[in-house]
Write a structure and sequence with these properties.
It is a single chain. With 422 residues, the chain is an alpha/beta fold. The chain folds into three domains: 124 residues, Response regulator (Rossmann fold, 3-Layer(aba) Sandwich), CATH 3.40.50.2300; 91 residues, Helix Hairpins (Orthogonal Bundle), CATH 1.10.287; 161 residues, Heat Shock Protein 90. The protein contains ten helices and twelve strands. The chain has a five-stranded parallel beta sheet with strand order 2-1-3-4-5, sandwiched between helices. Helix 1 links the parallel strand 1 and strand 2. The protein is elongated. It starts with 9 loop residues before the first strand and ends in a 12-residue tail after the last strand. The model has no long low-confidence stretch (mean pLDDT 91). The structure holds adenosine-5'-diphosphate. Adenosine-5'-diphosphate binds next to helix 9 and helix 10.
Amino acid sequence: MPTQPLGPIKILYIEDDPSSRRLVQRLLEAEGFHVTVAEDGLSGLELARQVRPALILTDINISGMTGHEVATRFKEMPETRHVPVIALTAATLATDRDRALVAGCDGYITKPIDVDALPRIIHKFLAGAREKVSEDVKVQRLEEYRNELGARLEKTVAELQKANAELRRMDKMKKDFVILAGHELRTPTTLIYGYTSLLKMEMQQRGSADDHLNDVIDRITGATRRLNEVVDAVINVSLIDSEQLELVFKPVDLAAMTQAIVADLQPIVKQRNLQLVVGDLSRVPTLSADPNYLRRAITNLLDNAIKYTPDGGTVSLDAVPEEEAIHLVVADTGIGIDRAEQERIFDKFYVLEDTDFHSTHRNNFLGGGFGLGLAVAHGIIRAHGGRIWVESEGLDATRLPGSRFHILLPLTPPPPRQPDSK
Ligand code: ADP
């Protein structure tokens, strides 16, 4: 049995026509009821669970779920099973009434609304009145209703499948466009980078002492390198997203690879007065991996370790052999990472939200990034059949708890992916 509500009696009204909604709401509120309105069947179901009304009024011809379907659901839901559901509709035929009652309605009120009678009728249903249909009518109408539901289900599933296929097609087009646009951008930026590097070399060879010009060239080179990195990150993340990352597995000597990465980072490590400690990797066996992508993943972790560690701190890289795998750790003495964020940081476009923590130059402490570094590293390691995760006590720019990024990489590549059977 429904429990007696405290305060005004709650009524839920489902109606997609705004003027009817307003009229009925005003009318019933003037009678002292508390009226919640829903514009369609689905939100009506949701609101009913929250509001727990003592009575539900519903239009029958509403978009999405019909009033019949909503009434059927109300009679199934434990929260509303005993709540009277009254149809309020413009359809006036006797068969319309029977169909509504068979679907689960307890009463049937026709439009136009009789303003004087409506409150009285509502009170009648609240007091326990229920309309009924005879058994033989019920059997016949139920059969019709079942057929109607089957046909509606088929139509809805077909529409959803079509919409889903269209979304997939558009999503693929978008991803392909990003990859294509990235490749188109990379050609000129690589050229600019090449020519500015050449220019710098020539200036050096000619012994030019024009500091201003040298500085301008350095800035162009730096900006172009950064642009190339951004374009690469966008291409890589799009390839990962659309499962098009094609790895070319070769034997990789991790010790030699890390030496090369560390050599590249030396200028910035020096500039930031950091200690970059590399463990003894001589015991690490040769592994089968894509050297270009693996190098990108490890570089991204080291870039971050440098970026999130204040000047004077320590960044370390070590790797040990484990059963059929290599366990690589990049650790730092930086600001650390909030525990609640430690999974989300591997998502695309995740960036530290607190802009107080941001600086403008990317190599500075907390230099600006745009949240693709870890997503790319994650995608690359996953494509190698490996795992990547982080440990940190939390984010604290004063105490500097640091972070430890782990990569577990199998010595041999995973079996090739099965072609998509869909
Ligand atoms: P970003 O370009 O912002 O650095 P990443 O994908 O590389 O993007 O990293 C995502 C987020 O993870 C960063 O914004 C930062 O909040 C956090 N993060 C990554 N590495 C570290 C680290 N070594 N120390 C502290 N926070 C880190």
